[in-house]
Design brief:
Elements (H helix, E strand, L loop, with lengths): L1 H26 L3 H30 L2 E2 L8 E2 L3 H7 L2 H32 L6 H7 L2 H4 L2 H11 L6 H8 L13 H29 L3 H9 L4 H12 L1 H16 L3 H6 L11 H11 L3 H26 L6
Antiparallel strand pairs: 1-2
Helix pairs in contact: 2-15, 3-15, 4-9, 4-12, 4-14, 9-12, 12-15, 14-15
């Protein structure tokens, strides 16, 4: 009796699936049309969450006193003129460029070294892979608070260590000196995000066939030759992804400078996003703030296109 019931249930499920497949076939969709249909919910979500805010920000940058749901005066490029005449904008842009183009290459180099080490076979390999993600997994604001105490001029552990080993005679107010605060912030972000670079590059390394290295070793290729002629060329698509994934957050850095120095001293660590936040919500200049946000979007897009034009190779798989 039970077997008869199970057979009937199985037949019912099969009949239901066949009926559903028949309905799909009756739609007579091509693969391209079916792909478009399946992508529509994702595109709609992106349009609401990503593209609409971008368009609205650009529109707000052309108006004065613009807030959603209120009337505003259309002023055209005046907000951009005010932004480009503001020396604080250029200072913040310079800080962001230094922060990005110093930290990202160092993170890439350290991340590649870590990925090559973690790609080897050794005891505790997977524990080590999990352990290196700890700095990256820490929330940025918590990370900033930890390092602000480590760098503290009077009670900081780093100052205490440097004094004990004789490199400093007295405690040095690291985060209070404009010439050293930015370097300290860069060192913190390198410590935090090199492991993220390593994780992305490790995924690319695992996809490189082992027989290529075996053939190279049989031909007498050194480790350096293997790295130069096999690893790096085949790792280009992964390096492209890693650079984009790190450059865009770096150029948009907010949490670390806000929590570590709040942009000081003397705006030495004020990034472009921190400047935009200040001018928008502290000064209530929404039009100029929107213009600054639009400039950040354009810069991010330009950097991404540069990376793609430089590193993208369709034939590398």
């Amino acid at each position: 009796m039970a077997e008869r019931s199970r057979d009937a249930s199985g037949a019912g499920i099969a009949s239901g699936l066949e009926s559903r497949l028949r309905r799909y076939r009756d739609l007579r969709l091509t693969e391209e049309e079916l792909a478009t249909l399946l992508l529509m919910p994702v595109l709609l979500f992106l349009g609401v969450v990503s593209f609409y805010p971008i368009v609205d920000t650009v529109w707000a940058s052309l108006q004065d006193g613009y807030i959603i749901g209120t009337s505003a005066e259309f002023v055209g490029p005046e907000n951009y003129e005010a932004l480009f005449d503001d020396g604080r904008f250029w200072n913040a842009l310079g800080v962001s460029f230094i922060y990005t183009f110093v930290s990202v290459p160092i993170e890439l180099g350290i991340g590649l070294g870590l990925a090559l080490l973690l790609n080897r076979k050794f005891h505790g390999k997977y524990l080590a892979q999990a352990a290196i993600l700890f700095p990256w997994a820490l929330p940025t604001v918590i990370n900033a608070e930890i390092w602000s105490w480590l760098f503290h001029g009077q009670f900081g552990v780093i100052n205490d260590m440097l004094v004990r080993v004789g490199l400093l005679e007295t405690a040095y107010p690291i985060l209070a000196k404009p010439d050293i605060a930015l370097a300290a912030m860069i060192s913190v972000t390198i410590w935090k995000t090199s492991s993220f670079m390593a994780l992305i590059l490790l995924a690319g390394l695992t996809g490189i066939p082992e027989h290529l290295y075996e053939a190279a070793r049989m031909d007498g290729a050194s480790n350096w030759r293997q790295l130069r002629d096999i690893t790096l060329p085949l790792l280009k698509p992964t390096i492209l992804v890693a650079l984009i994934f790190r450059t865009l957050p770096a150029i948009q850095a907010f949490g670390l400078p806000y929590g570590l120095t709040n942009g000081g001293p003397a705006e030495a660590t004020t990034t472009i996003v921190l400047f935009t936040h200040s001018i928008t919500f502290n000064n209530l200049e929404f039009g100029v703030g929107s213009a600054s946000a639009t400039a950040i979007t354009v810069i991010g897009l330009a950097l991404s296109l540069f990376y793609v034009a430089t590193l993208y190779e369709p034939e590398v798989r």
